[in-house]
Every structure is written in structure tokens, then in C-alpha cells.
Amino acid sequence: MTFSVDVAATAGLAGAHRPGLQALTSTDRNHVSKRQSTNFSGSVNLDAALAPLYPNANRWDYVIAQRRSANHRDLLHWVEIHPASGDSNVHEVAKKGTWLLGWLKGTPLAGYERRLIWIASGRSAFNARDPRLKALSGRGIEFAGRYLEI
Amino acid sequence: MKTLALRQVGQITEADLSFGDLTVLVGPQASGKSITLQWLKLMVDTGQIQERLDTYGIDFGGDLGAFLDVYFGEGMHAIWRAEESEVKVDGKTVDVAKRIARRQKDKNEKAFLIPAQRVLAMANGWPRPFQAFSPGDPYSVRAFSEQLRVLMEREFTGTGPLFPKSNRLKGDYRTLLQQSVFADFKLSVDKFQSQKRLVLDAGGGPLPFMVWSAGQREFVPLLLGLYWLMPPAKVARRDKIEWVIIEELEMGLHPRAISAVLLIILELMTRGYRVCLSTHSPQVLELVWALEALRRHQGKADDLLDLFEARHSQPLRSMAGQVLDKTSRVYYFDPTGPVRDITELDPASSEAQEASWGGLLEFSARANAAVAKAVANDPTYITPDLFEVGE
User: What residues 81-110 of chain A have any CB closer than 8 A to a CB of chain B?
Assistant: First the structure.
């Protein structure tokens, strides 16, 4: 199965698949760049697509699928663009991660290899040695700073 | 001096440094940090260096190449390339060959440089005199060692305690150093077959230099350098010294000891010294990062002292309050291009070298990413409950 097919088969995501990084808003696209060798199988704006089904949930922002060799399924970059100005943001992102992993269970997208990535929407109060970021890594979420290169 | 610029000097292609009250140089090995700091001293102290070389019978015959071999060390004349190399001080090009060849009038030492090789200053537990080194050894090591020898000769005559010592360093600093560096040991001067030497003693008899821990061997020359910079009399600074240059202050030290030394660095700043450091320690940049953030967000002296787990005593609060008004600069020595100003140290910067603090955070970031990816893909570990931790 391909990423776009699995997206279409996921409850709430039918019609949400976009080529390349086109699911990202123009502001958010400034935070993600592509290496020359990278190819995308598409992206989905989860936050927008799942709002009708889960209006009050701590919804994650996006998923971006990176194409790999013929023998490997795509690598999914689950991307949350969120402020990183203080302690409360760590808890907010952790909550969103909890929601994402809970939602992901049982969907066709759960079987893909994944990265959960928090991109700072502005200036960061954290550096990579910060124990709060280390704790978050221990819970499966990596902090990429303000820019992510895939 | 407010700015120093180097062009095509050694491995440096282009460096434009504007000094703060605290200036920190970071970058990989052999990227030009040490050479830059030595140029800073040379430009500030040309007359004093010439006089010292005269005193010890070192005659470079007015030749720049010979001088560079003496000053930077054997073979280092190659860092200067005629027609290419350039040094500017406060925006003006310095005719280096002329400056070195002519005797400069000002003989006062204004920059005190504590070199990375400071452990070489001690031979058998006593500072070596200038002439005990090889003529090919860098001037900075020889001069530092000589300075310590003079300190010991003039200010620590006879035998007795050297650390802790009541009239040297504030009590708060002594306590922190005792805890983080010396533990139960006391540093003192004793005599062995009439030869004076530094020893450590924890009550079981004197321990000579060669049996000290690596960290203690590294730290004691640094401590003596700090004694030199902070005289016991009620004067803030030593003689005419304005600049304190310390290479790799973290060498051999545990992070708690680095923290204690950094607090003393802040003290030096409040005494009016301009401090320049080179470092491979992210902890030093953590300090600059915190200082900048505390300034930006109207942080208080107590916030700064909490960083060091230091007492909120009146002297320390006064010191910390003054430090928050000081300026800092951080430069990354890029082996592949010009030196970059990364003072903002924004971990979310679009400039990779600023975001990674000149590479000092790279490994941490990669470790975080590797762990996060493994955890995110481990079906036996990931549960929604996991994220409730910390709520």
C-alpha cells in the first residue's frame, strides 16, 4: 500500500492528502526544507482534517511522508509547529503526542516507521542539553529547533 | 582596544571580533582560537613583551619571522604570510613588522594570559622560571609560569597554607572551590630537603604534585593565576592589567568545579577586567546564554546566583547585580570560513552553527533525536499514559 492510499483509508483523512509539502500552510512551510536527495510522497494537515471529528482534542499538526527505497515503506515525519518559549509548551506538546499516538493506533498509518518532531514556531527557550527536552525524547518526541530539514 | 580583526593569519581566513566585557571563542581544534587570543595579548602588550624578551637575552634581531617563532612557538612564523596576512586594531591596519621591530614605549602589562598548557608551568610542584623552558616554547606559557614564580616569591614567602587562605578570594568562592575541587585537601607550601614545593594534605601527610589528581594539577596553576589577578589589598585589579585571557578554563575539571570557576570569572568582570575565554565546554556557553536571557527578561541577581547554587550573600548579590549590566560576545571559529558572531546562541536559529552553539550541542541534539525515534517506534513502550508524566 502507498501513503496516499493509506491516508485515504484513514477515518477523517479522506481527501486530505496533498503532494509534496503542500498540506503545510505557507507560514509553516518556512519551517521545513527538503534536501536535494529527498523525495516526498505527500503530506497531510491533520489539525485541519481531524477538527470536525475531534474538535476539542490536542490535535497534532502535520504528517509528511518521505519516500525511501523500493524495499522500504515511507518514513513518516509527524510534525508539530508550536511555541517553545517556556515550560508549559513542553507539557502542551507532550499532551499532543499522547493524543497522536492514541489516535494513530488502529489506523493504516500506524505501521509506518515514524518520527515525532516538535518544531519551534519562534525563539526557543530550550537548548539540546535541557533535561526537559531529554525527558520529551524519552517519550518519543524530538525537538528540531525552528527549522527541520528532511 | 574594542575590536581586533585578523585576515589570512594561520588557519584564520577572516575574523572580526568586537569585544564584550566577556568574550568567548568556540570552535574545533586548530581553528585559530588560541592564535587569536595570543594576537590580542601581543597587540595590547607589545612593549612589555619586548622588554621581557630583552631581559632574558632573547634577541630576534628585529625580524618578524624570528619574533613569531619566539612568541607563538617554534615553527609558528608560518602563520604570517607576507602580502596576505593582516591585523587590524580598532579598524586600523597594524604594520606588524614595524611594530615588532621598534621598541614600544608603553612597558606596562595590560593583558594576563592563562594558557591551555598551564600545567607545564609547574615542575615538581613549583612554578618554573621563564628561562627553564626551551626557546621554542610559546611565550604565553613561559610568561605565565614566570608570573606564578614571581607571585610565589613575593606574596607567599616561607611555608604555610595557600588554599584555603583567609585573605585570598571571597569566603563564598573558597567554600565552592573547597567542595568542588579540593574536597578534604588543603593546599600549602612546604619544604622537602630545603626545596619549597606545593603540596596537598588531607591529614595523612603531604602529597606532592605528581600524585595529585589530573584536575587538581590543572586547577592549581589556574588558582594561582586568579590569586595574581585578585590581590589581597583593597584594590580591584592587579597593576595595569585590563584584560584576562583564559584558554580552556574547563580543562580537567568536573562540571561543579567549572561552575565555581565561572562564578569567579564573573567576579573578575565586576572588578573591571575584560575577560576573553576559549572553550570546548557547553557549560561556558550555558552561562552566556543564561546571562543574555536574564538581561533580556529583567532577571535578578538572585536568579543568576541560583544558576551556581551559590549563597545569596550580600557580596555575591552585589557582584551578580553588576554582572547583569555587562555585555557578552560569542564567536565561532569555523575551519571552513570566516569567524561568525553567534552571541544570540538561539537554539532555534536558522544559522546551524548558532543553533548548535558552534557544534557543542550537536551530539546532544543527535542523542535526543536517536532516543526519540527509538521510543516512538517501540510498540512495547509507547502508551498514551506515558505523556501524563510531568502534568
Answer: 84, 90-91, 94-95, 97-99, 101-102
With an 8 Å Cβ cutoff, are A141 and B350 in contact?
Answer: no
Q: Please report residues of A whose CB lies closer than 8 A to that of B390.
A: 90-91, 94, 135
Which residues of chain A lie closer than 8 angstroms to B365, CB-CB?
A: 128
Average pLDDT over residues B38-47: 98
A50's grid cell = 481531524
Question: B48 with B109: CB under 8 angstroms?
Answer: yes
* Residue type at B166 in one-letter notation: S
Contact A95, A53 (CB under 8 A): no
Give CA–CA dist B375/B85, Å, rounded: 52
- CA–CA separation, B276 vs B36, rounded Å? 11
Band of pLDDT at residue B382, cut at 50, 70 and 90: low
Q: What is the pLDDT of residue B386?
A: 44
Query: A45: helix, coil or strand?
Result: strand
Look at B347 and A113 and tell me if their CB atoms are within 8 Å. no
Residues in chain A with CB shorter than 8 Å from the CB of B375 are 137-140
Q: Which residues contact A8 (CB under 8 A, 6 or more apart)?
A: A14, A15, A17
3-class SS string, B31-99: CCHHHHHHHHHHHHCHHHHHHHHHHCCCCCCCCHHHHHHHHCCCCHHHHECCCCCEEEECCEECCHHHH
Query: Is there a contact between B376 and A114 if contact means CB atoms under 8 Å apart?
Result: yes
Please state, as a whole number, how many other Cβ atoms lie within 10 Å of the Cβ of residue A19.
11
Of A111, A119, A34, A37, the C-alpha closest to A78 is A119
pLDDT of residue B379: 75
Helix (H) or strand (E) holding A40: strand A40-45
pLDDT in tens, B254-274: 999 999 999 999 999 999 999
The string of pLDDT tens digits covering residues B184-219 is 999 999 998 888 999 999 889 999 999 999 999 999
Cα first-last separation, chain B: 52
Q: Does A141 touch chain B (CB under 8 A)?
A: yes
Q: Which residues of A touch B371 (CB under 8 A)?
A: 134, 137-138
- Per CB-CB distance under 8 Å, the chain B contacts of A73 are none
Q: Mutate which of B284, B378, B382 to disrupt the A interface (most A C-beta within 10 Å)?
A: B382
Which triple of cell numbers denotes residue B366? 543527535
Question: What are the E-state strand segments in chain B?
Answer: 3-9, 12-18, 22-26, 86-89, 92-93, 111-114, 122-123, 126-127, 160-163, 186-192, 195-201, 207-208, 243-247, 274-278, 328-332, 340-341
Nearest one of A24, A60, A58, A28 to A42, comparing CA atoms: A24
